[in-house]
Amino acid sequence: MVPPLKPRTGGTAGALAVLATLFLAATNFAEAALGAAPGPPQAETDDCLSCHGDQGLAAGKPGPGSRSLFVDGQAFADSVHGRDLRCTDCHPGMAEVPHPPRPHRTEAERRAGSREACKACHFENYRQSFDSVHQRVLARGDVHAPSCVDCHGSHTTVPAAQPRSAISRTCAACHRGISDAYANSVHGRALLETENADVPVCTDCHRGHAIADPRVENWLLRTPELCSGCHADPARMSRYGLSTAVSQTYLADFHGMTASLSRGKGEEAPRITALCIDCHGVHDITKVKDPASPVLKANLVKTCRKCHEGATESFPAAWLSHYEPSWQKAPLVHGVKVFYGLFIPFVIGGLALQILLHLWRVVVNR
Ligand code: HEC
Ligand code: HEC
Ligand code: HEC
Ligand code: HEC
Ligand code: HEC
Ligand code: HEC
Ligand code: HEC
Ligand code: HEC
Ligand code: HEC
Questions:
Q1: pLDDT recorded at residue 182
Q2: For 238-270, what is each residue's pLDDT tens digit?
Q3: What angle do CA 130, 259, 338 make, to 5 degrees?
Q4: By alpha-carbon position, which residue is closest to atom 19 of ligand 5?
Q5: Is there an atom of ligand 2 within 6 Å of 156 CB?
Q6: Is the beta carbon of 150 within 6 A of some atom in ligand 5?
């Protein structure tokens, strides 16, 4: 398939010809690697569609149990696969009519098995899908958990992340409650109303294929890093006038320190400290000035009381929140800090000077 490289004729034209040949070889190789058979797929497609283009074609006896076998040829042609794939790339053996029997027995098996059609070309996604929480649901025979086609479609597949909001909408199809909360959150609003690329979609926190169980403590203890990935990024946060000190001040605080120390202490260890999400919420995060914000001054004690039973109204006031101590905020703490900032170098410097003077005396007076 790869034409032999001609001897160099010299000059740019020759170099271009070599490059073009290499490029062709590379594309051929990529196609072969993807498993797409060579040759125009149209003849085969037309053949399949001569039966499957019939809207009335269905599996099973007519009635509620029957399933349509109609395939919309135009929609398939418009899909990401329409240009290069043959029907039999995903349905091997089906060129034979009447079709040979297939292995699956139940509907759940058929759905779970449908991902085998994608394995040859998207192996990484295929592999990851076995590490997903959804796999557990599929494994127990529950047909409500998504396989590839529930999120991507089978014959109408479009680029998965265009526009970006399409990602969150994909999950919304089954996770209604959470998606509604998210749609009203500071993150979700920015995404769904303005396609803002700076805010997180579902898969930024959960991923799309190897979704971790969000109830496992070790995963939860890593969520501050997840938030900090954006909230400690000056370029991203400056566009919204938000402080990037939230991450570092959290880690310097008792809650953050305990969270760092507790990591890796076993999957089921009970939650022993406050994470970002305990104060701000998860899918329903609001602006901190929003009247409904759990961290608004008026609501803050209630938030602390989730864990600090019997906290008084003044309890949160005694805490520095995300502030670095300053003359305005916690002047006493700041004062002590400044004092030590001067005092410690003074003491250490003095000590060093004393040692040097001693050495000097020893050298000079010997
Ligand atoms: C002569 C008509 C005809 C042609 C041509 C035809 N099919 Fe079919 N196909 C059927 C009928 C009828 C069924 C239902 C019976 C069965 O499952 O074997 C079916 C079933 C199927 C199914 C199984 C659907 C399911 O989920 O149960 C697939 C997949 C399929 N065809 C793909 C193809 C492909 C790909 C081609 C082209 C290579 C093709 N068919 C050509 C008539 C046809
Ligand atoms: C990218 C892979 C892929 C290609 C290409 C593809 N199919 Fe499918 N097809 C699937 C998957 C996966 C399913 C199972 C869908 C499900 O379970 O909902 C399916 C289901 C079907 C069915 C059963 C009815 C249905 O829609 O569930 C028929 C019939 C069928 N395909 C025919 C075709 C024909 C004809 C072509 C070519 C025009 C084709 N397929 C191209 C992946 C593909
Ligand atoms: C729960 C929904 C869901 C399931 C199930 C799912 N995907 Fe995805 N997939 C997504 C989302 C959302 C994206 C967009 C990128 C992202 O945010 O991960 C994506 C991206 C992709 C991409 C393009 C980007 C990339 O990662 O390479 C491919 C290819 C893909 N998926 C294939 C598959 C295959 C094959 C399966 C089955 C083994 C599968 N997906 C199962 C939701 C899903
Ligand atoms: C024969 C190889 C082949 C098979 C089988 C195949 N795909 Fe693809 N898929 C491709 C190629 C090639 C592209 C890139 C098309 C492009 O970029 O124009 C693609 C693109 C995609 C994309 C878009 C990626 C993006 O950039 O967002 C998704 C999603 C996807 N495939 C899902 C699937 C799913 C789900 C299946 C199984 C039902 C499947 N594919 C089966 C070859 C294949
Ligand atoms: C086709 C439906 C469907 C789609 C689409 C879907 N999920 Fe799920 N998901 C489920 C089902 C069913 C469960 C299991 C719920 C249960 O056990 O109560 C689940 C469980 C989960 C869990 C584990 C939490 C739990 O309650 O066990 C997470 C996290 C999750 N999904 C995230 C996502 C994300 C992120 C997306 C989009 C990329 C997505 N899901 C798309 C059906 C879906
Ligand atoms: C900013 C990060 C983030 C985003 C964005 C996000 N989640 Fe979550 N999600 C989490 C965290 C953290 C948890 C664990 C919450 C807990 O234990 O209270 C969680 C828990 C879940 C759960 C299981 C717990 C439950 O309440 O049932 C599901 C399902 C889920 N998310 C789906 C989604 C979907 C769907 C989206 C998009 C609409 C989404 N998430 C967006 C961080 C996020
Ligand atoms: C113990 C509760 C608590 C924890 C834990 C917590 N926060 Fe906060 N957060 C607050 C309070 C209270 C405010 C409001 C401070 C103010 O403006 O007076 C706030 C404000 C914010 C703001 C707004 C900053 C601004 O410039 O207005 C962001 C963003 C934020 N937090 C993110 C985080 C992140 C990320 C984490 C984890 C790394 C976290 N928070 C952990 C209580 C908490
Ligand atoms: C993908 C980046 C990203 C991730 C991850 C992320 N955020 Fe945000 N967050 C933003 C952006 C951007 C805004 C500003 C949106 C706007 O104002 O339109 C924001 C706004 C906020 C606000 C509102 C601040 C205010 O008062 O205006 C809070 C609180 C917040 N995020 C907390 C969190 C927490 C807690 C997490 C982790 C569970 C988190 N965020 C994860 C990007 C992110
Ligand atoms: C999810 C539970 C949780 C929430 C919500 C929470 N805390 Fe804590 N907090 C803890 C735990 C557990 C400790 C002890 C371990 C440690 O230092 O992290 C602690 C320790 C503290 C301490 C150190 C002194 C002490 O009492 O041990 C202060 C002060 C404190 N929290 C203030 C607050 C304030 C103010 C709020 C509300 C804005 C708050 N906490 C919200 C769980 C929580």
A1: 97
A2: 999 999 999 999 988 889 988 888 876 655 556
A3: 145
A4: 134
A5: no
A6: yes
